[in-house]
Write a structure and sequence with these properties.
The chain is an alpha+beta fold. The protein has a single domain, classed as Orthogonal Bundle (Arc Repressor Mutant, subunit A), CATH 1.10.10.10. About 60% of the residues lie in helices and about 15% in strands. The protein contains five helices and three strands. Strands 1-3-2 form a three-stranded antiparallel beta sheet. Helix 3 crosses helix 4. The radius of gyration is 14 Å and the shape is globular.
Length: about 100
């Protein structure tokens, strides 16, 4: 099911990853968790993850065993704006629904 966020910005793997990480912005996730939460395959995630890291949209946080964990980089200006837009879309819809 497409959300308003994906309908507005496009239903692409990157947008799905962004949406998943924005919703859980305070947490860090393994690559498997990100792929599952975003509803994309691990192979697809591996194709786009380096771009997300290079552009500092996501940052590594720690390692647990062999798993690296990542989270949304809330210090990145682009990410701040996307989160702002996301929150505006979600909260304005909730206000309308009430």
């Amino acid at each position: 099911m497409k959300t308003l966020f994906t309908r507005a910005l496009g239903d692409t793997p990157k947008i799905r990853v962004l949406e998943f990480l924005i919703e859980g912005r305070e947490l860090d996730y393994s690559l498997s968790d990100i792929a599952e939460g975003a509803g994309i395959g691990r192979t697809t995630l591996f194709r786009i993850i380096n771009d997300l890291i290079k552009t500092e949209i996501i940052v590594p946080t720690r390692e647990i065993g062999n798993a690296k964990l990542f989270k949304l980089n809330l210090k990145n200006a682009f990410v701040k704006k996307i989160v702002e837009i996301f929150d505006e879309i979600i909260y304005s819809r909730k206000k309308i629904a009430i």
